[in-house]
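Changelog excerpt

This revision adds worked examples to the README so contributors can see how folded entries look when concatenated. The first example is reproduced verbatim below.
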Amino acid sequence: MDKNTITGFVLIVLIMLGSYFLLKPSDAELKKERLVQDSIKRVKAAQTTASTVVKADTTKKAITAADSAVLSKTPFGAATVGSEKLITLENKELRVKLSTHGGRVYSVELKNYKTFDKKPLILFDGEKNQFGLTLNIPGKNINTKDLYFTPSAASLNVAEKDSSTFTMRLSYSPTQYIDYVYALNGTGFKLGLTIKETGLDNVIANSNTLNLNWESSLPKQEKDVKQERQYSTVYYFNTDKEVDLLSESKDDQKTIADKKMQWVGFKQHFFSSVLIAKKEIDKSDLSVSTDVTNNTDVKQMKANLAFTRSADGSVPLEFYFGPNSYSVLKAQGYDLQKVVNLGWGPLKYINQFAVLPVFNFLKQFNWNYGLIILALTVVLKLVLSPLTYKSYLSMAKMRVLKPEMDEIKAKVGDDNPTLLQQEYLKLYKKAGVNPLGGCLPLLIQMPIVIAFFKFFPSLFELRGQSFLWMHDLSTYDSVISFAPIFGVDHISLMCLLMTISTLVYTYFNNQISGATGQMKYIGYITPIIFLVTLNSYPSGLNYYYFLANMLTFLQQYLIRFMVDDKKIHAQIQENKKKPEEKKKKSGFASKMEEMMRQQQQVQAKKK
């Protein structure tokens, strides 16, 4: 290395060392830069974690001048930073907690009810419930659920009185804000909510429309989460007084834009949260889903709703938080009782106009609900007793004719079923017997039997009511539990008794009707199916079916004293002597004869 190279290298090192010491920032300059960077970090953290829950006793962070400068350039910037405070509104039925984070209802407790395991019944709680407006501010979409509201200082201490109001305010500026005004009466299951925008017409695009997002994950309240899911979904009611619902058995979603909505309800088996629009909902996007891996939550429900503001910029709403009791819901107005599923078509009308009034009448006596079900079953059996008598009489006629039918079968044989049926029809015609006479009364009774299948699982009054060994008539009575086998982990004693009584009823019914062959054994299959399918159904329903079977035994025992086989046989013989032209031919007989002729013609052509 020559002299010039060494000299150049030394000079470069001297220049670098001199630059380091001469250009090094002072301690005051470093401190100032750290303050600026920390301020920027705090603003970014506040914007990205505004949805994090901070407990009410957390001290609010101080905002520096640099923070304020950044926040002032962000829509509702000051509201992106804050701490969550919970304010409680309470009456005789409800304990409602409001949160400054989103200005929303944080949780709702029904004070007079408990879960199946005697814990406080809370419809929803914390972050599992979201409620907010989506604001379209040019250049950015903001949801109020991520912002911090300021509670009204005048209403921080709510006095116990007939009604109380509480205001949550989201400020854009001192003269531009959104208010959530909550109102709770001293009694009742309703919470009023009026949303009002002030001075934001030039800030929010299409400010005449409010887009509201409401979603909730509903916690388990009942013993059997599978049954609870089976009766839980989103209900909605339009201004044409029509109610509809999303699927109860699978994930579902629906957009309703062709009709205005009156209310949308997140319905669980026995409790509901309903949002009522005092005017109307312009558009609704609804969905329901089930997380089957989580046995602590029943279903997740969502509703995106569009409202038109009133002339004063407000949207008046109401919440219903309460039981799915038909009478309680009906008293709220807005046809909320239609949340209770009483069945479809004629089943709904049977339950609504026949079964429910009788049940409510019996309920006035303050009996145990087991006795009320017994009385209800007795009333039903008395009303249907004429049909039961007619069915028994028709089966008795068929039993008396059976020896003659056996003779016909021996003559004709089994090789020609068409001819055999023709001969049977001739016998029926001569004897004046309708072979379906025993079936028709039973068919008439079937809608009522099926109506009870929908009535009892939807009956809120049975919830938590005990009778005999059944601790809760609204769910199954588990007397034997075991490891799950094909999804079954218990045996319901009342379901077992119901099945045994049905098998016994089938046996005696076959004796009365004289059924033979395959028809004799088909009736034994249905009770076995019921044992599997109804094992997890409410014990109140199985109790009703058991009582119905036992009362049918009693009816048939009494009817036997009024029906004499010898008199029936004598009457049949008299009918045979009547001229053919005087015998009234039934529509069934005419149709059967025509079918036989057609079959004979087809067989003749084949030959």
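The second example, added in the same revision:
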Amino acid sequence: MSNPGKRVFGLAATGVYQPSLRSPWLAANDKKWEELSKILQDAPEMVTTSGSRRKLIIFTEHRDTLAYLMERIKGLLGRPDAVVTIHGGTNRDERRKIQEEFRNNPDVLILVATDAAGEGVNLQNANLMVNYDLPWNPNRLEQRFGRIHRIGQTEVCHLWNIVAVETREGAVFQKLLEKLEVERAALGGKVFDILGEAFDNISLKDLLIDAIRYGEQPEIKAKLDQVIDGALDTSHLKEIIRRNALVEQHMGLDELYAIKDEMEKAEARKLQPYFIRAFFTEAFKTLGGEMRNREAGRFEIRHVPAAIRERDRVIGETRTPVLKKYERVCFEKQHVRQQGKPMADLLHPGHPLVHAATDLVLEAHRSKLKQGAVLVDPNDDGIEPRVLFMIDHSVRESSGDSQTVASRRLQFVEIDQHGKAINAGWAPHLDLQPIDDYDQSLVQDVITAHWVANNLDALALNHASTHLVPEHYEEVKKRRERQVDKILAAVNERLVKEINHWSDRYIKLSEDVAAGKQPRVQPEMARRRVEE
């Protein structure tokens, strides 16, 4: 996976305005909008080499500004369906739907959002972002850019910050952005990853208020520059990066072989992409869907039948809606991204589109599953017949009144004509082949044998419960215990550091008060924090 560097562009507007739908004067004379309009129309990064428009995210602070921008951008592009919005009033289900449309619908090009979309949202199919308004909290700058600059992003990410430089507030932001650009180059693009920590003990909000109130005083200007230079000092930032780096761990050969063995087992248990693609392609076609080949291993879905979308609405387990069309889909992770091409949505059994199609197919053909199938193993020269059972087993864990699946897998039990049950392995069904009608007539006596009609289901379940289930449970239990131990150690270490930090702050603040100073944080508050 590549993690390309970041480019930061500070753009200046000649005045400071707060756009409003209720103000026609601002709509005609908004300098910030003029700058954004130039970006949308003239910036070469807005289009691909083939001439198609790239997807873009625009962040603003206010709902009024969001509505204002949405209307102006729609008018500029001439395509109302090309712009979608997310704000604090957007409910969870609608937000998921909008995110899916922005990721996969080729007609949706621009997302205008407040900070409701700035955290916990993965929008890395885009690599362009504009901060129409800049927040007073550096953590939010970091969260915003993190929506597109994530692991797996293969494109260079471009960020434009629109700043009114002829204001005192704008002068502080301009200084901040210029320093960020210098440190971005020095640290290879990592400065945004630690921006919040760099300002951990510094209030950008207080700096901006001081700039607005006293910005004309030379000593205040010098102080502001000094604070920003100190927070974004190269050595300071490198120390934060070093502190956040993962601790190196060394494994012995035994551990490496154990991990390799587990990976091979997991690969054998996994439903291979080839089978998912073969099933979905046939099922989707049967249901009236249209899927066309595009790049190698990638497809375009121009039409999803209403029956599939309605079934998704009824079952609605994933809460991520099925769309009317998908610009690109694929069945293997390596095909999700291709240079210069739209990002593909990975189709898997849990994907809402596959899930809804599977549910419709099962509804139509569930009875056939109960009949079973007559198969032959081409690698087995023996003549003894066996019955193979697939058993779906889940290990669940409770959290309050709810339960979640900690691990789920298919178990395979094989029973011979003498009633002996054994573990059939991780994926024995993949080696079996259908038997033709002529060969099936030759083994009709085996198919109708009395032992096949015995209660083999109970025998298979009993064997699985006695042998396979305990192994599965112990495996999950050990993995969960290791995970909990790591979390507990990390939380303990973090809390000890926090206690020591606030203990030191309490001592320092107490000394300041004793010396006649009036610190912004009182010693008593620091002492309470230590106790908490």
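Reviewer comment on example two: Confidence is low (pLDDT under 50) at residues 1-28. Residues 1-166 form a domain with the Rossmann fold fold (CATH 3.40.50.300).
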